[in-house]
Inverse folding.
């Protein structure tokens, strides 16, 4: 299966750099609406068979133009919502008090899945819910699936499940609004990342460290 993991369009909380993960969450800014409207054109070359979205408002609004352009239903699944920040909700993302969020989340792909964001979820819980939606999509038989999800959730899941993306690579590369990671594979055979936004990645087994771009200038 070809898997397109797409971050939602811009929100006011993104502009203000706030950790905002609770439901239902904010809508899109005018720029976020324009980003969502551009997705059908950006993805014109993709033969998308199924479209999923997180239940958070920003993800569903981002999915809507693509659903309309492709005449596809949007399958809403809680499992691909953002990683919960728990007690850190609405803190500035660059505040010292917010540091445990991504530090804990990026410990999960390293195997420390029992760790828990203060007041939030553990890696066991977060990865299991995301895995379940991926498994559902794979079992549907769809050739290409687009999922509108959230930046931290997409990056952490990819670092945990893609054989050619290491943690340092994923942690150092935040996704832009409507940025996309493209993967191929399946739950049983494993996943490899084909592209991280505009960067084409080395296939598994190729020389060089995991997550290294094919083009060093990329």
């Amino acid at each position: 299966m070809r898997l397109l993991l797409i971050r939602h369009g811009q929100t006011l909380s993104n502009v203000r750099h706030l950790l905002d993960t609770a439901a239902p969450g904010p809508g899109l800014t005018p720029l976020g609406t324009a980003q969502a409207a551009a997705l059908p054109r950006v993805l014109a070359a993709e033969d998308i068979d199924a479209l999923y979205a997180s239940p958070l408002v920003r993800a569903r609004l981002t999915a809507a133009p693509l659903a309309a352009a492709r005449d596809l239903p949007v399958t809403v699944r809680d499992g691909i919502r953002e990683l919960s920040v728990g007690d850190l909700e609405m803190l500035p993302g660059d505040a010292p008090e917010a540091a445990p969020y991504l530090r804990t989340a990026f410990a999960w792909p390293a195997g420390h899945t029992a760790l828990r964001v203060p007041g939030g979820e553990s890696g066991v819980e977060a990865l299991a819910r995301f895995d379940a939606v991926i498994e559902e999509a794979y079992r549907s038989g769809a050739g290409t699936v687009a999922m509108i999800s959230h930046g931290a959730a997409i990056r952490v899941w990819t670092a945990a499940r893609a054989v050619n993306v290491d943690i340092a690579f994923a942690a150092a590369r935040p996704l832009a609004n409507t940025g996309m990671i493209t993967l191929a594979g399946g739950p049983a055979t494993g996943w490899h990342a084909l592209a991280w936004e505009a960067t084409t990645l080395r296939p598994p087994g190729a020389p060089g460290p995991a997550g290294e771009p094919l083009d060093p200038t990329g």
User: Anything to note?
Assistant: Confidence is low (pLDDT under 50) at residues 214-218. The chain is about 35% helix and 15% strand. The helical segments are 12-15, 30-42, 57-70, 99-105, 123-139, 151-161, 167-171.
